[in-house]
Design brief:
The structure is a homodimer. Chain A is of the alpha+beta class. The first copy, chain A, is 16% helix and 34% strand. Chain A is built from 5 helices and 12 strands. In chain A, 45% of the residues are buried. β12 (203-204) of chain A pairs antiparallel with β11 (191-199) of chain B, so a sheet runs across the interface. Chains A, B: This is Pyridoxamine 5'-phosphate oxidase family protein.
Chain lengths: 231, 231
């Protein structure tokens, strides 16, 4: 499934910067794999409210082209208001600052995935458990298997929503600045400042006596910085 | 101005996780200073569209409690559709993964600012120039002063919008996991994986012969990771 091409719908067609559009669905999944949070936009009255959320991905379903899961408190008015509404889930990895010789050509290197779809409330018990495990494992692969089962009280307090990965678009900007050849000024510096995320050594909670487990010690939370690759 | 308290309106009142709400406007400005991109939510028909944007901040100017500026192509239908509409500008700095002994108590350490306001088109020539300089200097302080002036063509191709910082809310989560004392399991590891952004050495464009200037060599793009501080 991840080898299929993204087939933009009216809503997921990129209208600006078409040269930066990537239609390989595998790239969408790599960006989702790299990212640790998404920004979820939900309509609230006459304006959107955008908040950061953890998420999980099931590339094989059950929704068309795979499913992205988000969760939160059942008491969250913001999250509840997403139910059966069309939402926007945006994931951005920032790879570098692009400093041109003109302010106009300043840019950033980034990988951005935008998913638009209806927020389907996940009510099936098995799908809920699977979604919650996917969300935990999205940060630290294998973590969920090391945890005690969710309690009925915890499950009752948690709202889970699914968004199909069908309507998705991807834009990637990489490489150096784009000053026009006829506008280049040798004595003004231009270039890229590469950026990346790093994880420091885990800090054990004072109430935990177990050693750091391999899935935590070995998890790679660094993004696959592509700022040095061609545009 | 940055010493004033955030005074939430109906729209900017945090309803969940009130213990994480910060009302010190100086904290809002520190988060905005740290962040390199924002996620801008704009209503598009029956759903929001959220995209990453560069931004600049004028803490003293002209809108109530200061102004946040975004810019883009005048040909951007998405950005144009924000005009005079209420938008949501969300800035999130991710400081760590919080791994609890229960899936339910897994969390993240973050600093998040949410600004809701009307996107005011910036038409005044002087304010437009100032806004564009603030956006460049937001990434690399002092950079704009080293660049040639914007051309009339560049200015004509650029749309600039201002959002007041009046309706803003801030949430901060820091510190360790929050497993309930009566639920703690000594043999399950719990803790925090601190995360931070690092900048690698600048990569000079092949057409730039000038040496790396001090404002680029010295700019600090690392976020002020607060994951180790108390909750």
């Amino acid at each position: 499934m991840t080898t299929a091409a993204l087939q933009p719908t009216e809503r997921s067609t990129v209208r600006r910067g078409k040269h930066r559009v990537v239609t390989d669905r595998a790239v969408l999944h790599r960006i989702l794999d790299d990212a640790l949070i998404a920004h979820l936009g939900v309509q609230a009255g006459d304006h959107p409210v955008v908040l950061p959320v953890a998420f999980g991905v099931d590339p094989h379903g059950p929704d068309a082209d795979g499913t992205l899961y988000v969760h939160g408190s059942v008491a969250s008015h913001w999250l509840r208001s997403a139910q059966e509404q069309t939402v926007c889930v945006t994931v951005t990895e920032l790879d570098g600052l692009v400093l041109a010789q003109s302010a106009f050509n300043h840019s950033m290197n980034y990988r951005c995935a935008v998913v638009i779809g209806v927020a389907r409330p996940v009510l099936d018990a098995a799908e809920r458990e699977r979604a919650l495990a996917l969300i935990v494992d999205h940060s630290v692969a294998g973590r969920s298997a090391t945890l005690r089962p969710n309690t009925a009280k915890e499950l009752a307090a948690t709202a889970v929503f699914a968004v199909s990965l069908h309507e998705a678009s991807v834009k990637v900007r990489a490489g150096g600045p784009g000053d026009e050849p006829n506008e280049q000024i040798p004595d003004t510096w231009a270039g890229v400042i590469p950026l990346r995320r790093v994880a420091d050594a885990p800090v054990t909670a004072d109430y935990a006596t177990a050693p750091i487990p391999p899935e935590v010690a070995q998890c790679d939370l660094s993004a696959q910085n592509s700022a040095q690759t061609g545009r």
